[in-house]
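Researcher: Sequence of Ferredoxin follows. Predict its structure.
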Amino acid sequence: MPIVTYVLPDGSEHAVDVPPGQTVMDGSVRNNLPGIVAECGGSCSCATCHVYVDPESQAFFDEMTDEERELLEFADGAQDNSRLSCQLVITGECEGVRVTVSAENG
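Model: Prediction complete. Tokens:
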């Protein structure tokens, strides 16, 4: 099972097994990690699951949709490597994914 490392706003790191087919958001919520609020439950409508994807991990995920891009335009602290974790679907090839949770969520 792929392991996703979440770097939380306090600097702590948590490595979590996330099954293929689930999202980076699911892995955080199901393991009660703080920082990813996920108010909309993963429907790509709130941006409270904003993360920064490490450069080495970006190739694991599909390109951003227009809907995701528009939400991130209004997200506090958005950067070039910003993504919504509800849109980052884990596959069997995603071993070693690292994301940093935005301190601006929620």
